[in-house]
From TrEMBL:
InterPro entries: Porin_alphabac. The keyword Translocase does not apply. SUPFAM superfamilies: Porins. This is Porin. The keyword Transport applies. It comes from the Bacteria. Keywords: Ion transport, Membrane, Porin, Signal, Transmembrane, Transport. Residues 1-25 form the signal peptide. Pfam families: Porin_2. Belongs to the alphaproteobacteria porin family.
């Protein structure tokens, strides 16, 4: 290890150990559960803590919240960006002999209301953060009443309980995720919850061949969860080309299944696992950007015969989490994404064929509003042409809840 890298690590280590996320230092209201006046609550990782107050003379509770988060990165081999993006390895311009960067752009602001009525609670929630690049961008904006949710929120295809607690934004590679516009209905019976949704029909067809996507039908998802232990979900998607602009009239169907498991191993340790398989799932695994970009994963492509084919994809992940005390915890885990892009199309040679992501961290919950930690992350990527690259990063974070 070069001398300057040793100096960089020595400078960042105290940040991670003395001053990221939240943990077992306080009671938890699970994500999606109603806020009770005066009680703490959470909405999706990284968890947001906030207290509520009642508007005098009304049945409406208000909750303002969010957090300020500072992240310090040291990249050994390649600049992986603000959210640790392994696909940055595909671009030689991101290579480095060692680079330090700071950001506070993950910081968030949110606002929630709960209005009690004779037939249940009307809930609204709006949240934004400052990614990418410091611009304020909308994350959540939805209303919910009697089990019906309408607006922008987490896709119904994803799960929380099997996702490990890490400093990296968005969770490990290969875990279904995404914020989408949707209409969803959820039915709960004891520890059982079943939900179904129609979601925004966006997709990415490879630009190779000169075609563009045109989604005609919304995506259909269904999910079953048992408490905070197990969940399984499915999605069906339809892809088609825009015949009016390209002269190509093709369609294909994408599908997928995702499952997560969280098992206690004694009183202080838990095992978590994730599996996602299907075809045309690039969007749901954060592998496809909002617009076609070289070396990114498409949902579908045109083959040599002019037929629209979806990209098969498989993702698996496992992790262990251990609470050393009520305030100190650690996690270690790895995940892998493999996809089946054709190796006989020249334009796909630089695309990712397989991505492996691993991490280990130490997190200190100083109190209910302050947490800090340090995390080692390793990304390894193999291209369709057989070439491979890997990169390591140290991330230290401080998070102030409000």
């Amino acid at each position: 290890m070069k001398y300057n890298k040793v100096i960089a690590l020595a400078a960042m280590l105290p940040v991670g150990l003395t001053a990221v996320a939240t943990s077992q230092a306080f009671d938890v209201v699970p994500a999606g559960q109603p806020v009770v006046t005066g009680e703490p609550s959470r909405v999706g990782p990284p968890w947001n803590h906030r207290s509520t107050f009642n508007i005098p003379g009304t049945n409406t509770d208000l909750a303002f919240g969010g957090y300020a988060k500072f992240d310090a990165f040291y990249d050994f081999d390649a600049d992986l960006g603000e959210v640790t993006e392994p696909l940055n390895l595909l671009n030689p311009a991101n290579e480095t002999d060692g680079r330090t960067s700071f950001t506070a752009n993950e910081s968030r602001l949110n606002f929630r209301t709960h209005t009690r009525t004779d037939r249940g609670t009307v809930t609204t929630f709006v949240e934004g953060h400052f990614l990418p690049g410091g611009s304020f961008n909308l994350r959540h904006a939805y209303g919910e009443y009697m089990g019906v949710l309408a607006g922008k929120s987490w896709t119904n295809f994803m799960h929380f309980h099997g996702t490990p607690r890490i400093l990296k934004l968005g969770g490990p590679i290969g875990y279904a995720t995404g914020l989408v516009n949707q209409v969803r209905y959820t039915h709960r019976a004891g520890p059982n919850a079943f939900s179904i949704s129609l979601e925004e029909p966006s997709s990415l067809i490879s630009p190779i061949g000169g075609v563009e996507s045109e989604t005609e039908l919304p995506h259909l998802t269904a999910r079953y969860q048992y408490g905070q232990t197990f969940g399984i979900s499915g999605v069906v998607r339809q892809f088609s080309t825009n015949e009016a602009t390209t002269g190509v009239d093709e369609s294909a169907t994408g599908y997928g299944v995702a499952a997560q498991l969280a098992l206690p191993l004694g009183s202080a340790t838990s095992f978590k696992a994730n599996a996602t398989v299907g075809s045309g799932l690039g969007r749901y695994l954060s592998m496809a950007p909002a617009a076609p970009v070289a070396a990114r994963t498409p949902d579908a492509y045109l083959d040599a015969n002019g037929s629209l084919e979806t990209v098969d994809l498989r993702a698996f992940g496992v992790s262990l989490e251990h609470n050393w005390t009520s305030n100190w915890s650690s996690g270690i885990g790895t995940s892998r994404v493999s996809q089946s892009l054709p190796d006989d199309i020249a334009g796909f040679q630089g695309h990712a064929d397989r991505i492996q992501y691993s991490f280990v961290n130490l997190i200190w919950d100083v109190n209910q509003r302050l947490s800090t930690g340090i995390e080692y992350q390793h990304s390894d990527i193999k291209r369709v042409n057989g070439e491979s690259d890997d990169a390591s990063r140290i991330q230290a974070s401080v998070q102030f809840q409000f």
